[in-house]
Amino acid sequence: MNGIIILDKPEGFTSFDAVAVARRLFGQKKIGHTGTLDPMATGVLPLLLGRATRAESLLPDTEKEYRASFALGTRTDTGDITGETIDHTDARVSREQLFAVLPRFRGEILQVPPMYSAVKKDGKRLYELARKGIEVEREARPVTIERLELLRFDEEQQAGELLVSCSKGTYIRTLCQDIGERLGTGGCMESLVRTRSGRFGLNESYRLDEVEDFAGRDRLSEILIPLD
Fold first, then answer.
1. Which of 54, 85, 151, 210 might form a disulfide with 206, Cβ 3.0–4.6 angstroms?
2. What is the reported pTM?
3. Strands 159-167 and 187-197, how do they pair?
4. How far apart are CA 18 and CA 210, in angstroms?
C-alpha cells in the first residue's frame, strides 16, 4: 500500500507509537511520518506508506498551524505542564499587557531549543541529557512566526489560548515560555493541537479508532491519499 493517511494523533502517543500502530493495522513495515509531535500534543500527523516514504523531503510541510493553551506565572523544566514546576509567581498580567508583547514574537525570531527535545548536541539527543539532569548550552535558531493571535485570555486564571502559524522547527512550548518571560511572570504550555501541517488540515484527518474501523472493514484505501 502506497500513499498518505492523515492521522489525528491522540494524546499520550509519541509519533513513533502512532507509526507502530499503523504498521500493525496496515501489515507493512515501510511507514514513516512528517513532523514529530510531543506525546501531550494532538492533531495532524501525516503518515507515509510504502513508496510515499521516499517523497518525505518533497512534501510541502514547512508551515505548521497550532492552537496552544498556556498559563502565565508558572515555569517548568520542560516548558509545559508535564514537567516539574521550578518557579511560580502570583504576579498578574492584563489582557492589554499580553497584547502589547505579541508583536515581538511575529516574523523571524530566535529560539533556544528546549532541553527536552530531540535536537542533537555532540551526537546526543537533548532529552537524553535532560533525563540525566544534564543541561548544556544550546545555540538559538531562527524560526518564523507567520501568524500569532490571542484567541482568549482569562485575567482571573491568567490562562489563555494562542493561534500560531509557523515554520518547521518552531517549538510552541518555548514560544509560550518566552512570552511569559517577556511579561516577567514566566509561563508554560498547557495543551497543544496541530491543526495543519503543510497542505494537510485537521478536517482531513482521522482518529486512530476511525483508522482501525476502516482497517477492520478492509476499506483503508478509502482514506489513503494517492502519491500523485
1. 210
2. 0.90
3. unpaired
4. 13
Q: Which long-range contacts (CB under 8 A, 24 or more apart) does 83-90 make?
A: 83/116, 83/188, 87/186, 88/186, 89/185, 89/186
**Helix, strand, coil abundance in the chain, percent, nearest 5:** 30, 35, 35
38 tagged catalytic: yes
C-alpha cell of 7?
492521522
What does the pLDDT look like over 47-58, one tens digit per residue?
Answer: 998 887 776 555
**pLDDT category of residue 75 using cuts at 50, 70 and 90:** very high
Nearest by Cα to 119 from 138, 132, 142? 138
Question: How far apart are alpha carbons 101 and 116 in whole angstroms?
Answer: 26
Q: How far, in Å, CA of 204 to CA of 79, rounded? A: 30
